[in-house]
User: What shape does this take?
Amino acid sequence: MLQAYIPYFPEIMEMKTTRRLLTTLATLALGSMLVSQAWAQAKVTIYTAAPQDLIDQVIPAFEKSAKVKVELIKGGSGDLINRLKAEKGRQTADVLFSVSTEVIEANASLFTKYAPENVKFLADAFKINDAAVPFTAVATSIGVNTKQLTPAQYPKSWTDLANPLYKGKLSAARPDKSGSAFIQLATILQIYGEDKGWDLYAKILDNAVLSNSSGAVPKFVNDGEAAVGLSNEDTLLKFKVGGGPVELLYPADGTSASADVMALTASPINAEGGKAFINFMLSQEAQELVDAAGRRSIRTDVVSKNALTPLSKIKLIKYNEDWAGANRARILAKWNDLLLNKK
Assistant: This one.
């Protein structure tokens, strides 16, 4: 006769506990998978002042790596900050990408601190500054149209740029619209001190034809619309290596090589997607693409293959980002006063 087996009470409790544990683990796994799928399927919205060459390198690579679509909103750093201020409290963007550190520091309430895992690979000279996460270093430089000026006429320093020879021939961006143009101004003030620095900058400003973006300056130089231009080295390098009539110079009286940074916004639409982008930009893959775009990598394990002059051969100042950020509003107010009296 067959007899039914009735489990002993402790065995029943053990079976129930095991089932509950398995159910919990399955629920956690499913939840994790759903969260991962949710941010991957949603788009990542990035506000950026990056040059198109850099965008073309890194954005498709991130989309492929993360299996997510990116929506880009492009503009000068000043315009993008004004947009974020107008949108404050609303979920409109995930990341601000490719601006100067002081832009983030001066608008701290618009951003969230985030330390990505890949930050451990950064060279010692670079660090996260509040919410600002560096991804490349950029040196301020001078571009010259070689068809319009002879080598003897090339400006070799900031003081040379004050020469009336360059009146109406110098292209530069507005520091209230362009982060790199603000760095140019702050660099002069840090080299010469504020009294002499403002006097020098006022003379340079009198020679300048202004645009809203320093990214436009190299094209003006390449096309002959300007004989001299102030911009980041990578955008000028593109025209030089492309065979354009452009020479790339670094001021002999000193220049800055500061970090270009990114930051997670205070009210991201897709926080996990934004964090994934920031972490990706510090990966070896992304940093090699940064180098390919003519920028300087900030990882110790990426060997440069681009044609930029080594920093060891450039006279660099120790650019004080904290001072520039803390005094940004005052400096821009003074700049506006100068602009009103521009000759």
Q: What stands out?
A: The CA atoms of residues 274 and 315 lie 36 Å apart. DSSP finds twelve helices and ten strands in the chain. Residues 1-13, 28-40 have pLDDT under 50 and may be disordered. The radius of gyration is 26 Å.
